UniProtKB/TrEMBL annotation:
Keyword ATP-binding appears in the UniProt entry: yes
Domain spans labelled Mur ligase central: 31-72, 98-247
Organism listed in the record: Candidatus Harrisonbacteria bacterium RIFCSPLOWO2_02_FULL_41_13b
InterPro entries, A to Z: Mur-like_cat_sf, Mur_ligase_C, Mur_ligase_C_dom_sf, Mur_ligase_cen, MurCDEF_CellWall_CoF430Synth
Example of a GO MF term: ATP binding
One Pfam family hit: Mur_ligase_C
Keywords recorded for this protein, A-Z: ATP-binding, Ligase, Nucleotide-binding
Residue span(s) of domain Mur ligase C-terminal: 271-396
Name of this protein: UDP-N-acetylmuramoyl-tripeptide--D-alanyl-D-alanine ligase
Amino acid sequence: MKEFLRKILKWKLRVFAKLILWKYQPGIIGITGSVGKTSAKEAIHTVLRNIRNVRVSRGNFNNEIGLPLTILGHWDKVGSWGFWCKVFFVSALRLIFRMDYPELLVLEYGADRPGDLKYLLDIAKPQIGVITAIGDIPVHVEFYNSPDAVAREKGYLIEALMSAGFAILNYDDEAVLAMKERTRAHIVTYGFDEGAELRITNFQNRMEGDRPEGISFKLEYGGSFVPVRLDDCFGKAQAYAAAIAAAVGLAFGINLVKIAEALTYYQAPSRRMKLIAGIKGSYIIDDSYNASPLAMRAALDTLKSLGKGRKIAVLGDMLEIGKYTLGAHEALGELAGKFLDILVTVGPRAKFIAEAANNAGLAKKNIFSFDEAEEAKRKVQELIKKGDLILVKASRAIGLDKIVEEIRQI
């Protein structure tokens, strides 16, 4: 019965969303990838909000429920049946009467399982498609035959673009760059590597004494460049988000200087490489929202590059990577063991990180493993000293946000 009601709900959402799009004809910017989607959405919104009325999908609204719900209204979260009655009542009013509606929608297209993209594209086809990154071991790969199958699924986004559209592709990711053969749209590539049309150069994680400050870099395009400075966020992932937003801005005819000015107001989404003041004069890099092997390695590389104080990592399980689980966790442990001062792991899979870190040279006395976040909170609090830099990262279901709340300065 419950599954039947869910099917009815999905059908109604799909029908109402398509009718709303038919009536109001907004422009659509679609984003997919294995990492970096939320930061890219926020950066795009930052660049476009002063020239257009823009709606961005909230949180994890990227599936057969969340995407049409974003089209229907600026809803924050799903509620009870009373909530759904309100959604469909307001949507009916929008269809009957002419009401305010955004000029642009920035939608996230999730691909948890094969077929997801085609279902979502049947509801809403974008004019601009963005692929962030796939990586060697993409998140959700356990539901696919191979990483290549994940890339094929996500590539449907740019296959759906018309010839007048724009496909914005990560030049540094081989799987993403290969997708350029699958679209008839104008292609804009971005990245750090030489050859990217919109290139990120002179990147650095900034420090002010012992305090992390943010990042700075240059964006180069068409023979021109602009400096960009982002505060209270870290890692190349945030520079990628800014480059994506710049590429979208250029597609809308905004010049590079105006784009750089807009990006100074960018705020990294919560729990995505976000700097937070910690207890005892420490600094937390909160990246606890989710984790994939690609994102986890990038976060550790960022921690390694920051400052000279003690470096602590609180790392949890990476979920939904299937047969790659053991090898992926061990590879992270090998990296972590070479530079960390203290490692705390949470979850059964993360114990492979701990073992590999010990084998790589991190002393056992500096490694602490726990089954759940609740058990780890007190120990992490005890370990922290003034000036420590603490990275917190895991798949969302591990709940490491509880540890962040325990050690943040109130």
